[in-house]
Design goal:
Radius of gyration: 27 Å
Largest sheet: 7 strands, antiparallel
Oligomer: single chain
Order of helices and strands: HHHHHEEEEEEEHHHHH
Number of helices: 10
Distance between the termini: 22 Å
Helix content: 55-70%
Length: 373
């Protein structure tokens, strides 16, 4: 049953949460813009276009920044709420009524779990839906730049190549697709070659409309069986290529950390396809599993500094909480970066993501146990 004290604490928590959300993300945006402003102004663009590009770029970056700062935001909101109670001597009044300080922490912990649910929704639904927008560079927000595409896997047995790829026009020039044999005995051997002067993405048919000179050339044997043997190619006119990669996928794969913005379902599909090393997928998947847990552990590590029954200087307690949680955040970040370094074992590759939880979980329990109620 929700009591008056619970409603009071929850109102204060969510007010502090919104304030911390606005301040921290705004600070993130301002610092990033200050460091990278020159990239937005490259090419002598009109001032109105620069402002539009900045707004468009950071509008889609906000969900990504939220996923990175969610644990800090929750920690600030909970500790700020408890610090306010101490400053107003409300903790003494609660203790005088026979209520434990852990009773004060309970609604804040529940609220922390709820906002961690927002993090999961952000990572599993929102970020994958805007992943192509996140792949844009600061100096090409409009997508006007033309790129080369070489040897990008398109399905299980195809390599997609293009001399020019335009994200803005959703098309390519100089298309070359290499198809290898599906026969297990000739795995990896060339079977077909598709070439086209131009190709335009067809969203309705989920493939590429081939334009200009376009041919499919089949080998006479369905694969190269003898090294050094000349290959006889049989040309065949073709006007459509049912590729698995859309222009958004091609743009996304140009980003260094593109798999970080995929959902767990997409990561499972990617791991099954073998398009990227398994350890890279493990890095993202186990980081996704551990992040909400780590956020709650950091919350439990920071709150005990504000649950003391004896009046203490709030700034001193805040400094202790800041140092303790900052060290934990840094070690966790290093652990997330180390995941996937071990190429030989899936278990060893996943261990660094879970190590901060094994280390800081007991520390959080010790800190909570040391609270005098």
């Amino acid at each position: 049953m929700i009591r008056i004290i619970d409603r009071y604490l929850l109102r204060a928590f969510f007010a502090n949460y919104l304030l911390a959300l606005f301040v921290l993300i705004s600070l993130y945006v301002v610092l990033d813009l200050f460091v990278n402003l020159d990239e937005f102004t490259e090419g002598s663009k009109p001032i109105l276009q620069v402002i539009t590009n900045i707004g468009s770029y950071y509008f889609f970056q906000v969900p990504l920044y939220f996923s990175q700062l969610s644990g800090v935001i929750t920690l600030f909101a909970a500790c700020g709420t408890l610090a306010r109670l101490h400053r107003n001597n409300e903790v003494i009044a609660v203790l005088a009524s026979g209520t434990s300080v852990f009773r004060l922490a309970t609604p804040l912990i529940v609220a922390g779990l709820a906002v961690n649910g927002l993090l999961v929704l952000d990572q599993e639904f929102l970020l994958p839906s805007i992943a192509p927008k996140l792949a844009r560079s600061r100096d090409d927000v409009e997508g006007a730049r033309v790129y080369e595409i070489w040897c990008v896997r398109d399905g299980e047995n195809r390599l997609f190549n293009a001399r020019q790829f335009s994200p803005k026009e959703q098309g390519v020039r100089g298309l070359i697709v290499l198809e290898t044999s599906e026969d297990p005995r000739q795995k990896g051997r060339l079977r077909d070659v598709i070439i086209a002067d131009r190709a335009q993405w067809n969203a309705d048919r989920l493939g590429w409309d081939l334009q200009g000179h376009s041919l499919r050339m089949r080998t006479d044997s369905g694969g190269l069986s003898e090294p050094g043997k000349d290959v006889a190619l049989e040309p065949e006119a073709i006007r459509f290529y049912p590729g698995a990669l859309s222009p958004d996928d091609l743009l996304l794969r140009r980003q260094r950390q593109w798999i970080n913005n995929l959902s767990l379902t997409q990561l499972d599909q990617l791991q099954a396809s073998g398009e990227v090393p398994v350890t890279k997928v493990i890095q993202v998947k186990h980081g996704r599993y551990t992040l909400p847990i780590a956020n709650m552990i950091f919350l439990l590590m920071g709150m005990p500094f504000f649950l003391n029954r004896a009046p203490e200087r709030i700034l001193n307690q805040a400094a202790k909480a800041l140092v303790t949680c900052a060290v934990a955040f840094v070690i966790t970040f290093i652990g997330q970066q180390m995941v996937g370094a071990a190429e030989t074992s899936t278990l060893l590759a996943a261990l660094p993501a879970w190590l901060p939880i094994f280390v800081f979980g007991p520390i959080a329990v010790v800190l909570l146990d040391g609270v005098k109620t």
